[in-house]
Design goal:
Blueprint: E1 2-6, E2 11-15, H1 17-26, H2 54-57, H3 65-77
Antiparallel strand pairs: 1-2
Length: 79
Protein backbone atom coordinates (compact mmCIF):
# COMPACT_ATOMS: atom_id res chain seq x y z
CA UNK A 1 0.00 0.00 0.00
CA UNK A 2 1.30 3.42 -0.90
CA UNK A 3 0.61 6.52 1.16
CA UNK A 4 0.79 9.88 -0.58
CA UNK A 5 0.64 13.14 1.27
CA UNK A 6 -0.26 16.48 -0.32
CA UNK A 7 0.90 19.06 2.18
CA UNK A 8 -0.27 22.08 0.22
CA UNK A 9 -3.81 20.72 -0.14
CA UNK A 10 -3.69 19.01 3.26
CA UNK A 11 -4.72 15.60 1.89
CA UNK A 12 -3.65 12.05 2.55
CA UNK A 13 -4.22 9.38 -0.12
CA UNK A 14 -3.89 5.62 0.11
CA UNK A 15 -3.17 3.61 -3.03
CA UNK A 16 -3.31 -0.14 -3.63
CA UNK A 17 -1.71 0.17 -7.07
CA UNK A 18 1.46 -1.75 -6.16
CA UNK A 19 -0.48 -4.56 -4.44
CA UNK A 20 -2.89 -4.94 -7.37
CA UNK A 21 0.02 -4.93 -9.84
CA UNK A 22 1.69 -7.67 -7.75
CA UNK A 23 -1.49 -9.78 -7.87
CA UNK A 24 -1.80 -9.30 -11.63
CA UNK A 25 1.79 -10.55 -12.09
CA UNK A 26 1.28 -13.44 -9.66
CA UNK A 27 -1.76 -14.74 -11.54
CA UNK A 28 -0.35 -13.93 -15.00
CA UNK A 29 -3.07 -11.37 -15.69
CA UNK A 30 -0.92 -8.36 -16.62
CA UNK A 31 -1.94 -8.37 -20.29
CA UNK A 32 -5.69 -8.56 -19.66
CA UNK A 33 -7.82 -5.69 -20.90
CA UNK A 34 -9.80 -3.70 -18.32
CA UNK A 35 -13.56 -3.47 -18.52
CA UNK A 36 -16.18 -1.36 -16.83
CA UNK A 37 -17.93 -2.90 -13.84
CA UNK A 38 -20.38 -3.72 -12.40
CA UNK A 39 -22.38 -5.50 -15.03
CA UNK A 40 -25.82 -4.32 -15.87
CA UNK A 41 -28.50 -5.66 -13.57
CA UNK A 42 -30.44 -6.71 -16.67
CA UNK A 43 -27.92 -9.44 -17.52
CA UNK A 44 -29.04 -12.93 -16.54
CA UNK A 45 -26.37 -15.62 -16.55
CA UNK A 46 -27.27 -19.24 -17.13
CA UNK A 47 -25.61 -22.65 -17.46
CA UNK A 48 -26.09 -22.52 -21.22
CA UNK A 49 -23.49 -19.75 -21.43
CA UNK A 50 -20.77 -21.78 -19.71
CA UNK A 51 -18.21 -23.91 -21.51
CA UNK A 52 -19.82 -27.13 -22.64
CA UNK A 53 -17.17 -28.99 -24.66
CA UNK A 54 -13.83 -30.30 -23.44
CA UNK A 55 -12.06 -28.07 -25.98
CA UNK A 56 -13.65 -24.99 -24.39
CA UNK A 57 -12.95 -26.20 -20.85
CA UNK A 58 -9.28 -27.15 -21.38
CA UNK A 59 -7.74 -23.63 -21.06
CA UNK A 60 -9.74 -23.03 -17.89
CA UNK A 61 -8.46 -26.13 -16.09
CA UNK A 62 -5.21 -24.37 -15.22
CA UNK A 63 -6.80 -21.27 -13.67
CA UNK A 64 -7.07 -21.27 -9.91
CA UNK A 65 -10.24 -19.20 -9.50
CA UNK A 66 -10.51 -19.35 -5.72
CA UNK A 67 -7.06 -17.83 -5.05
CA UNK A 68 -7.57 -15.16 -7.73
CA UNK A 69 -11.00 -14.10 -6.51
CA UNK A 70 -9.95 -14.36 -2.87
CA UNK A 71 -6.86 -12.22 -3.37
CA UNK A 72 -8.75 -9.47 -5.14
CA UNK A 73 -11.59 -9.60 -2.61
CA UNK A 74 -9.01 -9.19 0.15
CA UNK A 75 -7.68 -6.10 -1.62
CA UNK A 76 -11.20 -4.76 -1.97
CA UNK A 77 -12.45 -5.45 1.57
CA UNK A 78 -9.55 -5.77 3.98
CA UNK A 79 -6.98 -3.22 2.89
Amino acid sequence: MRIERGRTKKILQLSQFDYIRKLLRKFNMVKLKPTLTPLSTLIQLSDRESSSTEVEKEPLKHVAYMPVVGSFMYAMVAT
